[in-house]
Write a structure and sequence with these properties.
Arylamine N-acetyltransferase fold; alpha+beta; eight-stranded antiparallel β-sheet; globular
């Protein structure tokens, strides 16, 4: 497909294309996360999750919906390529909330090479915002919400991204503050079939959290807002609010006003969160 860069930048609220530099990468990723929500509602609604470039653009840009990592980072990497960056996908295991054997590879991120230096870039993780980071052992970065991130070599999995930050500015998994393993990844080549297989498991396997929970989140200028089933939580700077939504009309309003996702009353009922079908 021909990538419509102007429409993508308009979706992000950017007036001009950023340069193919480290600063440009950081600017684009930040704008993407602020503008496009993370969500899995189409999984719960029984719709297939297509991750080809045309389908992802139509959903996230033209229809102004959100998506999860396989959708978000497909769009983001297409934009990077259009802007002249060198990027390829990686697959990752998410360790947040995981106990027991290694979790499956249910996350994708990008490896971007700028002037001979590799960076990890991720516009599709449904948690605290982590800036692009040079791929170097012990490299650290600080997010706008104050969370710290650290890259470490891992003898079994290649690389591990760790986070230390307020639990209210991520997606609710993990034990709290202190260094927590977020996800691990290797630099092995990832092909279209690999992404398709991981996306299929993530969107269809009964044990996948995306089949069990209705998840919506958005990065805020200095924090994070999330709606997991009926539980709402928002922290921006030092201001925090949380609660449970008991009315489908309120749920629908929050989706629209806070996350920019407009669903019909019938679609809200199909999510199965409320006893009544009225919304």
């Amino acid at each position: 497909m021909t990538f419509d860069l102007s429409a993508y930048l308009e979706r992000l609220g950017l007036k001009e294309p950023p340069p193919a530099t480290a600063d440009g990468l950081a600017k684009l990723q930040r704008a993407h996360r602020l503008a496009i929500p993370f969500e899995n509602l189409d999984v719960i609604l029984g719709r297939g999750i297509a991750i080809d470039s045309a389908s992802v653009f139509a959903k996230l840009v033209t229809a102004r919906r959100g998506g999860y990592c396989f959708e978000q980072n497909r769009l983001f990497e297409d934009a990077l390529i259009e802007l002249g960056f060198v990027v390829r996908p990686l697959l990752a295991r998410v360790w947040l909330g995981s106990e027991g054997p290694p979790p499956p590879r249910t996350h994708t991120l990008g490896l971007v090479t700028i002037d001979g230096q590799d960076w990890i870039a991720d516009a599709g993780f449904g948690g605290s915002y982590n800036p692009p980071m040079p791929l170097a052992d012990g490299e650290t970065a600080t997010g706008p919400d104050g969370a710290m991130f650290r890259l470490m070599r891992d003898p079994l999995h290649g690389w591990m991204l760790e986070r230390d930050g307020h639990p209210a500015t991520t997606d609710g998994r993990g034990p709290g503050e202190g260094w927590v393993s977020q996800y691990s990844f290797s630099l092995d080549p990832v092909f279209t079939a690999d992404l398709a297989l991981s996306n299929h498991w993530t969107s269809t396997a009964p044990e996948s959290r995306f089949k069990q929970l209705r998840i919506v989140s958005s990065v805020l200028p200095h924090g994070f807002a999330s709606l997991t089933d009926r539980q709402y939580r928002r922290r921006n700077g030092e201001q925090e609010a949380s609660g449970e939504i008991g009315d489908p009309r309120v749920y629908r309003m929050r989706l629209s006003l806070l996350f920019g996702i407009d669903l019909s009353a019938e679609e809200i009922a199909q999510l199965g969160l409320f006893q009544t079908e009225a919304a």
